[in-house]
Structure prediction request, 661 residues.
Amino acid sequence: MRASLWGERFAGVAFIIVALYMGNIARDFPAGGSTFPLFISALIMLISVIMIARTFVSPANYDRDWRPKFTFAALKPILITTLIIGYVLCIFRIGYYASTFILLVALPMALGLRRPIFILSSAVGATAFLYVLFQLGLKANMPSGVLF
Amino acid sequence: MDLSVFSYVVNVLTPANFIAILLGTIVGLVIGAIPGLSPPMAIALMIPVSITIPPDSAIIMMMAVYAAGIYGGSFSAILLRVPGTSASAASAIEGYELTKQGKALQAIRISTFASVVGGLLSGLALLLLAPPLAEVSLLFGPAEMFLVALLGLTAIASVTFGALFRGLLAGLVGLYLSTFGIDNYSGYPRYTFGYVGFSGGFDVLPAIIGLFAFSQGLQLCEGPAKGTVSSNTKLSWNILPRLSEIRYTWWSLVRGWTTGLIMGIIPAAGASVAQWVAYGWERRYAKPGDKFGRGEIKGLAATEGANNGVTGTNMIPLFILGIPGGISAAVILGALMIHGLQPGMRLFKNNPEIIYTIMWGFILANVVMGVVAAAMARIMAYLTIFPQGVLGPLILVFSVIGTYAGSNNIHAVWIMIGIGIVGYYAEMWRFSPAAILLGLILGPIAENGFRDLMVVSNGEPVGYILGRPVALIILAMLAFVLFYAVRPKKWEKLEAASTAATPSTATPDRVQS
Prediction:
């Protein structure tokens, strides 16, 4: 699979900006603490410049077509991550085991799986396993909220 | 070499020791397979259980937990691309690709064989060569540690799979992340951006779980809900390795075992570094037709041989010098002291029956691990035929709980989620997550080694390195690796032509699952 021409250039520029920003912060680190970060910044800039230069020297090696996708499928990972963030916040309000059970039922159904018995039994089994392992086995008291 | 050590093998063959080994193996495999739960945690868990049993059985149980915990992480790495421990991340690269091709059990077979034999060889090295190898571990100072870290960093190129510059940038990002937190030398908070979660630095645990487990969970949720990880719908019971598979991977196994045995002696290196060095070494021996990055069994054999090849030799500094070489060894040191055993040469002189029984127990534990692991793997392999719509959410849940249980810190969970998103898009845009992880693991070793080197050499590292034989050997290896990587293209063509003219002794197509 060939790299995208503009993707390569954009990545190179982005990394140069990040390296300059991080290197600028590192200049204030005392007692030799700046050496390693500055070295990394320099290397990143060097490699990024080479990456960008290669797209001008041999553009035929790259794919010119680059269209960012803003479809629902492309946003799915962001939506699922948002849901997981909500799940983590709910753990401390509803309780760990209750939140986990709800997530393990709701998320598979939201993803389009239509096997309610399998989903329910997996959720029950997983929650029970987590309870036995963490609560009884490791004696790790997981957060409890309104429920358990 | 004292041959009387062989007389202590009968001490191991008691029902109490066998039960201790079995229990330790099962606990180690289960804990090791779950991301976030680590072998040191499992060992610490067994300490209260061990109080009521004789000291040698107690320590044997913990050694069994340690060895099995290292291997247990490989199950989830191979079957789900979710490394259970930091020692199994490299195995996820080739192992999971094999699982996707319906060859999960072949991967598990070779991985079990590599790990069991690696552990046995490592145990024999511990038993027979402990005192001289302990002397070697003392030769590793700041210069050697710095050069070992550089050698490990060259493995970044081997995990870029055709996107070298993007992979190098990913590795450098990993090095950046390793500088976050309080500087060990000045106490100055670097790159904390005012966030308390960054003040402790980037721990490896949330990074591994985020880069591999969380991002894998997102990928599975993105795919068809009814689809499965493996193309198989049924699983076989072929859990014993075939002679053809062993013959095909033989030299890869030898390289993996050698890497593990050597890296185990080096303080603070351990399985996390050994697996990558072994994988990088294996990539250099790639022949035309090898499928590295797309399910090459030789790559898996090398990493698995290395990560369990470390387990015995990693205990040498502990048993001989009383100096733990890693976290697991530190926990075992605590257990030794709780049971009234002070490690060191005095233990060998005053209580040889205890220490050698423990070592034989460790060797036997690797055999038991092979049997138990094969059965457990067969059960865990059912996960590969679970619908992705259920498996993905399960992995996401385990990522959160594993991170929280492993660090007891909600900030680690947020960091894990953040790195998980980074890992997901890094994989999509071919910035190798493995390279990020490698940079994160090796960054502290490289930086601390370099800064210590500058102190001990009074600012003249070159002259200092030239006066140390072990450092020169590692420098020579580094030069060889770099030369091999950048050698002129016409040399590559000559080598490829020479290899094509030589018939290979085994073909991967005949190696079936």
Notes: Chain A has two domains: 5-61, 72-137. DSSP finds five helices and no strands in chain A. The first helix of chain A runs from residue 5 to 26. Chain A has a mean pLDDT of 87.
